[in-house]
């Protein structure tokens, strides 16, 4: 009978199951580091995320837009392990306005693929994406700056972690 | 090869004569089909998403996700936050898009407006949205990516590129299930 086919089929699907099992093992092998339960493993450290210079704040096409540069110092190397493909690191501005309870805007991002790149020491870098409000409510608004990193594994769970940087109030007038 | 085909035909003829066995094998086939369906529907219920598993079809999220990776989605009610990778659908377009949320504006009522961008794209997604659409809303989002497996989706991509293969594969598999003899 068609035993070759049956065998091939069995080997193929057994192989798939093994791969799936190994993928799960890969995920489990890094759980301790990911979840940080009772471990003395070093954690990522965020030293600085702060505005270096505010370059402009004005209304631009009906919405407020701020251009700025900032400093970032952080050591994210502890977040790396063998099952991690990359970290998606970004600087987040979070603030509240009369119109919106919560505004979150990404100002700058970087894909970190190796442990060597995971020590961030950036000074006076210009925003990649301007701080643009949904309306014109940026003046005199207090803004929290965070550094956030998204773990993107080879196989496994996607999750984010963040560190608070600083808080700063934007000026009362356009300039 | 020819021998296998003849074998299969002989088996089918035998099956056709033995109605009881035919029924049994038919039920077997139905079992397989329905358990696949049940798993899918069960996942839909658990994740509250209309498609709990998606295949990445483009390179716009490289290097995070490549063509052929599969993503597991979760669409439970908790709010969407910036940085999350979401799968969304644009009105009048069939294929959902997997991109990262770059902006979140949430009103006190909970209504939320989002702007997305692919990691590998230079500009945000406003050009991909429907004409005149500036923001995504919660209803446009099918789910956020919570897990990933590599390469598994390649099968889907190949089957999509060569639709004929789909029918060939399904009929071969169906035939094998029908004629597969149980070893009691």
Automatic annotation (TrEMBL), chain A:
Q: Where are the transmembrane segments?
A: 12-31
Topology of this chain in the membrane: Single-pass type II membrane protein
- Compartments where located: Endoplasmic reticulum membrane
Q: Which GO terms describe its biological process?
A: protein targeting to ER; signal peptide processing
Task: Note one Pfam family from the annotation.
Answer: SPC22
Alphabetized, the UniProt keywords read: Endoplasmic reticulum, Membrane, Signal-anchor, Transmembrane, Transmembrane helix
Protein name as catalogued: Signal peptidase complex subunit 3
As for family, the record states:
Belongs to the SPCS3 family.
Q: Which residues form a coiled coil?
A: none
User: Which top-level group of life is the source organism from?
Assistant: Eukaryota
Q: Which GO terms describe its cellular component?
A: signal peptidase complex
UniProtKB/TrEMBL annotation, chain B:
**What's the protein's topology in the membrane?**
Single-pass type II membrane protein
Q: Name one GO biological process term.
A: signal peptide processing
Entries under InterPro entries matching the protein: LexA/Signal_pep-like_sf (IPR036286), Pept_S26A_signal_pept_1_CS (IPR019758), Pept_S26A_signal_pept_1_Ser-AS (IPR019756), Peptidase_S24_S26A/B/C (IPR015927), Peptidase_S26 (IPR019533), Peptidase_S26B (IPR001733)
GO CC terms, sorted: signal peptidase complex
* PANTHER family referenced in this protein's UniProt entry, alphabetically: SIGNAL PEPTIDASE COMPLEX CATALYTIC SUBUNIT SEC11
Q: Where are the transmembrane segments?
A: 21-40
| The EC number(s) this enzyme carries | 3.4.21.89
Q: Which Gene Ontology molecular-function terms are recorded? A: serine-type endopeptidase activity; signal peptidase activity
Organism equals Pelagomonas calceolata
Q: Which reaction does it catalyse?
A: Cleavage of hydrophobic, N-terminal signal or leader sequences from secreted and periplasmic proteins
| Domain Peptidase S24/S26A/S26B/S26C: from-to ranges | 42-125
Task performed by this protein = Catalytic component of the signal peptidase complex (SPC) which catalyzes the cleavage of N-terminal signal sequences from nascent proteins as they are translocated into the lumen of the endoplasmic reticulum. Specifically cleaves N-terminal signal peptides that contain a hydrophobic alpha-helix (h-region) shorter than 18-20 amino acids.
Q: Which Pfam families match?
A: Peptidase_S24
Keyword line: Endoplasmic reticulum, Hydrolase, Membrane, Protease, Signal-anchor, Transmembrane, Transmembrane helix
Q: Which family does it belong to?
A: Belongs to the peptidase S26B family.
Q: What is its main location?
A: endoplasmic reticulum
> Which NCBIfam families does its entry note?
sigpep_I_arch (TIGR02228)
This chain belongs to the protein called Signal peptidase complex catalytic subunit SEC11
Question: What subcellular compartments does it reside in?
Answer: Endoplasmic reticulum membrane
Instruction: Give the enzyme class.
Output: hydrolase
